[in-house]
């Protein structure tokens, strides 16, 4: 532990955002990093508790007190080595993770947790700047080959671990680039995509072979991969969006968030739209209503505001979480308090305990109105509370039900669990078919980037054990 009295002497200080009026003019990241000195001070606040709850609060079990101490002592390169020992991609989690580690921090008892996410991001960003992050190819080859379906964070983490263990690794990805929802769902203002390209280049130099525009079960038969590889990992995510089957759902102007967000991400990256893409969905000059109060909903708000929406309203069916008279009302208090994303500060109105009962539109079939009702504490409609909302564009961001079953999963015939995900437990990540494994959202259902990385790493451990009879890969 660096500074024994650090938490008593130093106030919590976190990264700031560029002013909303500036940042809504572009799609770039807008977080202003702390100075090196301020980061070091924040690391000094870590108490190195006897039982570091942050450790277990973090799904990848980052050794947070250890690297806080190393940052305090200005041993940044060692801090990076430690961070990478549990997390392949800290620059992703350092930007988009809701930081359950901070919720678990002992200092969160007074709403002032250590700024763990900020310190994590500073360590890895510095590592890239200094040129400390280089390919780490395996020194020996095993002669075994693994096919991984899906290049989201789960597939990428699994691929990197297995390549470093000496296996030949092929990643099959439906889209033109790697990253999954990190690239096509999460907007650039939360995480710029060159960060993914940099990791992919590192992985290619470590021997991972990427096959893009390759949808297994559609353009490539799974039988071909089953014959080619000694093990197959299913990391295809959970893509089936939750729908709202109410009257008027088929009016023009009502879209799933995941039809809207990927288009904008492709525009920013100047990546061509896929041939089967919906016509352009744009919020500019429109009254937008976002249905759904999670990360996807927030991303729809930020994107709509940047596209020039006239107004944005976000509807959430759940009650408003409790608020507290405290300046730190944001992520660290998660999951108990109201979550406020940067997008909410950019000009959206939020409504809680609201259910949409129908959409109505113009004669030519364009949506014009949402018909809503307020709900009581038992989530029952309150008589007389009905109201209408104007909308030219409605974005459905109510989460994801499960992976798509058509194509790959049906062809393979893998068992599906009660929630509709690929059945495989976390002891060995093995699906119901010999030599097939599953990880990430495809196995656990809609989740977080940090859980995808954890599952990819743990799955790699199991695949290596299966192929070699033993493994030195961490779980
Ligand atoms: P995915 O990222 O979904 O990747 C799966 C990949 O598999 C995709 O690239 C897909 O094209 C490919 N694939 C699927 N089927 C096939 C096939 N048959 N053949 C070939 N390739 C295939 N999490 C956070 O932690 N923080 C956030 O701020 C956050 N924001 C989010 C915002 C949005 C809009 C969305 C939608 C999600 C967000 N999440 C966030 C959740 C997070 O992105 C996911 O939990 C995570 O990406 C899951 O990783 P994965 O690798 O399991 O799947």
From TrEMBL:
Source domain of life: Bacteria
GO molecular function ontology, one term from the record: oxidoreductase activity, acting on the CH-NH2 group of donors, NAD or NADP as acceptor
InterPro entries in the cross-refs: 4Fe4S_Fe-S-bd, DPD_II, FAD/NAD-bd_sf, FAD/NAD-binding_dom, Glut_synth_ssu1, Glutamate_Synthase, Helical_ferredxn
GO BP, sorted A to Z: glutamate biosynthetic process
Pfam families referenced in this protein's UniProt entry, alphabetically: Fer4_20, Pyr_redox_2
Keyword field contains Oxidoreductase: yes
UniProt pathway: Amino-acid biosynthesis
4Fe-4S ferredoxin-type domain residues: 36-70
Protein name according to UniProt: Dihydropyrimidine dehydrogenase subunit A
Natural source organism: Blastochloris tepida
